[in-house]
Amino acid sequence: MDPSKSSKRPVPLVNETSTLRRHMQATHKAKYCEWAVANGFTSMLPNDMKRRHTEAMSSVDTQPTLGGYMVEKGQVVQYSDSIFREAAILWLIETDQPIHTLQHPAFQKMVDIASRAKNSVKIPSRGQTRQAIIDSFKTSLLSLHKCFSVRKQIS
Fold first, then answer.
1. Terminal alpha carbon distance of the chain
2. Which end of the chain is less crowded, N or C, counting CB atoms within 10 A of the terminal residue's CB?
3. SS percent in the chain: helix, strand, coil, step 5
4. In a 3-state reduction of DSSP, which class is residue 63?
5. CA 68 to CA 143: how far, in whole Å?
6. Which long-range contacts (CB under 8 A, 24 or more apart) does 110-116 make?
7. Tens digit of pLDDT for each residue in 136-148?
8. Whether the Cβ atoms of residue 33 and residue 43 lie closer than 8 Å to each other
9. Please, are residues 114 and 121 in contact by the beta-carbon 8 Å criterion?
10. In terms of pTM, does the model score above 0.85?
């Protein structure tokens, strides 16, 4: 065998990204970097990725705080009978409700349920309330329809 002629042995094809990147870094780094700069491509060679990661981690000196996620609620007014009475009377006046509304069992049930809430009560939107009323009406109609539907068999 002539030593001037180098014998090339077949190189197996590899479809592993990390292996290909290591190969590019070991044998074609200059060409790859030139191509990456010319095409505005971020180098994905292992050393370059490690350097970017190290730079990113060093820029983060401390652990992020929860400040951006925490929302401060307004001052919570402690319950008292006099404050509730004032709010109920103001609600009666502003919504033009009859005075006996406060004694209605449905209103008292609503207040009783709301009083058990741990933090606050979520009041449904107009659309949600409207849809709930429509659904309740449809359910009532179907129930009436079932009650009054009589099948008469002719014998």
1. 111
2. C
3. 55, 0, 45
4. coil
5. 50
6. none
7. 999 999 998 888 8
8. yes
9. yes
10. no
